[in-house]
Amino acid sequence: MSKRRTGEQGIGGLDSFQDIVANLVGILIILVIVVMMRARDALVEQPELPEITKVTQQQVKDAESMAIRVEDSILELDDTLSKQEFELKYRKLERDRMLNSITLAEAKLASRQQALTTESQASLALNSQYEAMSKELGELIRSRQVLQQMKPEVHVIEHMPTPMAKTVFGKEMHFRLENGSISYVPFDELVDRMQRDAQSKVHKLHQHPRITETIGPVSGYRLRYELGYTNDVIKTRNGPRLEQKIEMIKLELIPVDTSMGEPVALALKDGSQFLQFIKRTVPETTTVTVWVYPDSFEEFRRVKSRLFPMGYACAGRPLPEGLYISASPHGTKSVRQ
Question: What are the residues facing 162 on neighbouring strands?
């Protein structure tokens, strides 16, 4: 009787377990069905799509350009930031190196000062005093130089032993000196041409008492001359008599360009055009006549100083400003020294 009860109780426990499992399976089936129904409903419902806005091709290009500019700006900022970071690192390393150098120098100086004896310290003090005195001496020297420069400038007039003035009768070479420039005057060449030209123009004096003609240019100068009748009183056996003759009244040499010629500083150097004209003549028989305007008297002294050692006599003929070189039968001859 006792064993049968035990068997029934064991079987009853198994049934309860099977009921529980069946209930769980049923619940799971129900859940699966619910999920499938909701998923089907979700698939059936159409999602709400946002409204599509039409965009033109130009707007797309503008957007692309803006995006490229923004990207370039970002890259440029990154590059600048990288450079600044590199510069900061470099400066930091340089500062650290300088600080290390200063620290080492201070440490060496402190160690050397500690190692110096009393005699060495006294020598160091003397050296410092010597440097201070040298500096003061330099300042005094500079002050003296400034004071010397403030002194009035002294002009030294060079003295040349010149012979007694003599009237020129031999060969004469003419030059014109104005505005610091000297030029050769073809005086003899133009006079020769004037004499030939005057012979062919004398017939004009039958109609006019005086005529004016111009020839040239030769070496940059023209010659303007005037011919006419002149009256002279001559003595004869029968007493004074009036004689009329044709002669040159006046001549003028007119430069084609008033600024022509060489600067005196250049003309006095070897190989200049001025010295080439001078060296064509013999010093003992040639006088260099310089027609000088008021603005070039100082340059004339330099020319004279240059010609004196070469053995040339020099004659100066001052000219008023604005007048040409002129000559006449009743003029004066040059005076040489």
Answer: none
d(CA 274, CA 264): 9
For 257, phi then psi, to 5°, come to -135, 120
Q: How far is CA 337 from CA 14, 73, 247, 294, 316, in A?
A: 164, 88, 31, 20, 9
Residues whose CB is less than 8 angstroms from the CB of residue 49 and which lie 6 or more positions away in sequence, other chains included: none
265: amino acid identity, one letter: A
| Dihedral angle computed from the Cα positions of residues 130, 136, 138 and 144, in that order, rounded to the nearest 10 degrees | -150
Q: How far is CA 92 from the centre of its chain?
A: 41
Rounded Cα distance between 94 and 81, Å, is 20
- Please identify which residue in the block is written with the tokens 């426990």: 13
Cβ atoms < 10 Å from Cβ of 21: 9
- Matching residue, tokens 């049923």: 26
Element (H, E) at 65: helix 57-115
d(CA 270, CA 207): 53
For 244, residues 6+ apart whose C-beta sits below 8 A from its C-beta are 229, 230, 231, 232
Q: What is the DSSP letter of 269?
A: S
Dig out the tokens for 145 from the structure.
């130089």
* CB count in 10 Å sphere of residue 132: 10
List, for residues 132-182, the tens digit of each pLDDT value: 888 888 777 877 766 666 555 544 444 444 444 455 556 889 999 999 999
Residue 118 has pLDDT above 80, yes or no: no
**Single-letter code of the amino acid located at 186:** P
User: Rounded to whole angstroms, how far apart are CA atoms 145 and 88?
Assistant: 49
